[in-house]
Amino acid sequence: MRLSCQQEDLQRALGYVSRAVSRKSTLPVLGNVLLSAEGGRLKLAATNLEIAITAWTDATVEEEGTITVRSDLLTEFVASLPNDSVSIELDRRTLSVAVSCARSKAHIKGIGAEDFPTLATIGDTEPTARIDPAEFREAIGQVAFAAATDDSRPVLAGVLAEFEGASLTLAAADGFRLSVRRCDLVEPSRESLSIVVPARALQELARIIGDLEEPIDMAVTPNRSQLLVRAGSIEFLSRLIDGHFPDVRHIIPQTYGTRMVVSRDEFLAAARRAKLFAQSNNDVVRIQMNPGDGELDPGFATISAQAAETGDNEDHLEAQVEGPQAHIAFNGRYLTEVLSVMRSTEVALEMTSPNAAGVFRPVGSDDFTHVIMPMVVGT
Amino acid sequence: MEIAATPWPIVGHTVAVEMLARAARTGQVAHAYLFFGPEGIGRFTLARIFAQALLCEAPPDERPCGRCSACQRVERGVHPDVSIISRETQAAGDERGDGKHTRISIETVRNLRASISLRPMEGRWRVAIIAESDLLSRDAFDALLKTLEEPPPFVVLILIATEAEALPETIRSRCQPVPLEPLSRGAVAAELTRRGIPPEEAATIASLSRGRIGHALALAADPEALDARRQAVDAGLEMIESPLAAIAGARRLADTYRRGQRDAVERQIDLLLGLWRDLLLLAGGCDEAIVNADRRDRLARLARQWTLAEIHRGVVATLQALGDLAINAQPRLVLDHMVTQWPQPR
Predict the structure, then answer these.
(1) Which of B87, B90, B118 to mutate to test the interface with A (most CBs of A within 10 A)?
(2) B127 min Cα distance to partner chain A (Å)
(3) In whole angstroms, what separates CA A218 from the centre of its chain?
(4) Where do the structural domains in chain B lie, given as residue ranges?
(5) Considering only CA atoms, which of A114, A103, A6 is closest in space to residue A57?
(6) How far apart are CA B143 and CA A84, in angstroms?
(7) Cβ–Cβ of B113/A154 closer than 8 Å?
(8) Poorest-confidence range of B9-23, B92-106, B323-337?
(9) Is A90 helix (H, G, I), strand (E, B) or coil?
């Protein structure tokens, strides 16, 4: 393998793939990045066996070849080089990679590429779906945080992704809350399918597609084992979780007794204040909805928290309350987390009783639904 | 002895190989297997070859081919769809690197559980080999149980244990048992000869290995180990031949034991037990079955002076010493008692 490329390009590509490098693993090759000179380009790839990231960069390839080298070492070495042409040459006998740029030169010991996992790739096959990166990124941000972080039920550590017609629905639940977001596809999906993607993997993907504008291609491998995403010169792979995801439509309450509409910013600020006081009382934040007398007095909501040792606080918000007076209590962290990912100026909270789930919806859009189980507290 | 040819590159275990090869060929694979048998007979090798057969890229009849990238990576332990759980891999995955790793922890099993809930990276199967199932902690067993109850359809768990009974009933009943036995002496000798060991030495090593091919290969690879073993046998024979040497030997063993080398002492008593067993076999006319065939004449001379009942007493006393040490009896008393119970030479 012998090639040369620009330091800037190489550094950017390494920045992408090094996110998939395994920090601790029993397999040394997973701490390495794959370098592969093929067809006039340099391919870089890394995997931690949950996700894999592949990036291509322009290069002048004089001799094709492939090797893996320690990711942290190469990344930091390349980052320290001046922006100039970098030449990379592999000694096939010693598996040592010579990297030189301007007046610097290094030899890095490699591991043969035959130990590196074979990664599926979209290649030239038609993708299953195309989506706008900004919308997808927002959707991931609104859903992935609700996935479970413990390993007790592996399927709940994932995000359900349902492709159907021109829409993609993402859903995640951890047993106490559920977040569902529907988004539009650029072109209708070629087939209806539902997969479960690890939440961590989607969050990583969201970071990668952060500054992209062109629609990204998504495909699921024929054996339904992996999700492949192609975004510009980067390919992302995530293994899928096996298992039955709970039927989210059954979890969302269809009716309500009391509904209030409040400003999202005010609600979030009040929830954050209440959370300060709730910290020493199991994070219990109480919400009271008070209907008004009529047209001129729409009603108000009280957000409060109290802890025996710390003290208490109370916020009064203007609210349009529909239905009888009601109260409910939520975990303060869940409350602030959902409010901070909602984008509308006004949000609606619907409930039937203090013991039943509360439903959060943006006003003016039906793309997002969030359900939180209440905390049952003595009155 | 005739050695049945198996389609897999492993010595012996014909029945198990046939069953596993059929499973791999037809795709009717159980979600969990329990390989049990003494250490050193090829349990892990068999598990690894089974993993190769499942993941091999060759046509079904030729699996495992041993040549494709999948087979080679399984062999080197770097295939992404094969997880190996042992104290070593647990220590290697330890972030802080300060754990003791005397047992396999619930953390390790939980990580495994999360990892096998992901669909395969390359092949059709996800294989997890738990190399030392006997060493799972109680909590780890409970965590494993959840996986065994509803495993993803592509997962094959292979538990390796010395005794099936060492595992909780709840675990055992959810695994397909694959009993593995020590190999015949002929099979071990034939394999050693195939690897270029002179036939005579191969026969000696084979008889000493007691059917554990792993031990035989280790002995064959290390001439010093074989010499050390011969010296230990001679020391043992001397103890049996002379009551004075016996008492001196017992004291020496007790001292070694007190210095904390319990394993070395247990090995030496085990070796004494083997000698008594050989004497019993010689006295009973089963000359062929003896382990220490290279000391046949010396053993035969000894065997002739005692009755079967007397030799049996020697066996029982030695066996009891092993048991007593295991329950922490006073070592010097135990060993003195052992040698005084042995029959006196005439």
Answers:
(1) B118
(2) 14
(3) 15
(4) 14-179, 184-221, 223-341
(5) A6
(6) 54
(7) yes
(8) B92-106
(9) strand
Q: For testing the chain A interface, which of B101, B115, B117 should be mutated: the one with the most A CBs within 10 Å?
A: B117
Mean of the pLDDT values across residues B84-98?
Answer: 78
- Beta carbons within 10 angstroms of residue A205's beta carbon: 27
- ipTM exceeding the 0.90 mark: no
H/E element, B218: helix B213-221
pLDDT of residue B5: 47
The CATH H-level (homologous superfamily) assignment of domain B14-179 is P-loop containing nucleotide triphosphate hydrolases (3.40.50.300)
- Position B124: which residue type? R
Q: Do A49 and B80 touch (CB under 8 A)?
A: yes
For the stretch A218-232, pLDDT in tens is: 999 888 899 999 998
CB distance B154–A242 less than 8 Å? yes
Is the minimum CB–CB distance between B152 and chain A shorter than 8 Å?
yes
pLDDT of B17 higher than 80:
yes
For A27-83, write each residue's pLDDT tens digit: 889 999 999 999 889 999 999 999 999 999 999 999 999 999 999 999 999 999 999
3 state DSSP class of B109: helix
Bridge partners (DSSP) listed for residue A236: A53, A229
Contact: B95, A50; criterion CB under 8 Å = no
Q: Which residues of A79-88 are buried (b: 16+ CB within 10 A; e: fewer)?
A: eebeeeebbb
**Quick one: angle between helices A7-17 and A71-79, nearest 10?**
140
pLDDT by residue (tens digit) across B285-317?
888 888 888 888 999 999 999 999 999 999 999
Mean pLDDT of chain B: 89
Residue B1 pLDDT greater than 60, yes or no: no
Please check whether residue A267 is in contact with residue A297, taking contact to mean a CB–CB distance below 8 angstroms: no
Q: Decide if pLDDT at B64 tops 60.
A: yes
Question: Is residue A214 a contact partner of residue A232, using CB atoms and an 8 Å limit?
Answer: yes
Are A275 and A294 in contact by the 8 Å Cβ rule? The answer is no
Domains and CATH numbers, chain A: 2-115 (3.10.150.10), 122-249 (3.10.150.10), 252-372 (3.10.150.10)
CATH topology of domain B223-341: Zinc Finger, Delta Prime; domain 3 (1.20.272)
Provide, as residue numbers in chain A, all residues whose Cβ is less than 8 Å from the Cβ of B92. Answer: 26
pLDDT of residue A379: 52
The CA distance from A270 to A304, in Å, is 8
Q: pLDDT tens for residues B233-271?
A: 999 999 999 999 999 999 999 999 999 888 889 989 999
Rounded-to-integer distance, Cα A132 and Cα A217, Å: 9
Could you say which residues from 58 to 87 on chain B have a Cβ atom under 8 Å away from some Cβ of chain A? 69, 72-73, 76-78, 80, 84
Q: How many CA atoms lie within 13 A of B182 on its CB side?
A: 15
> What residues in chain A have their Cβ under 8 A from chain B's Cβ atoms?
24-27, 29, 47, 49-50, 114-115, 117-118, 151, 154-155, 157, 198, 223-226, 239-243
Residue B221, phi then psi, degrees to nearest 5? -80, -15
Q: How would DSSP label each residue in A95-128?
A: TEEEEEETTEEEEEEEE-GGGSPPPP--TTSPPS
Q: What is the DSSP string of A8-19?
A: HHHHHHHHHHGG
**Per-residue pLDDT at A211 exceeds 90:** no
Tokens 């990238």, residue located: B69
CB A196 within 8 A of CB A138: no
d(CA A29, CA B71): 17
User: Does this chain's domain B14-179 share its CATH topology with B223-341?
Assistant: no
How are strands ordered across the β-sheet holding A311-318? Answer: A311-318, A297-307, A284-294, A326-331
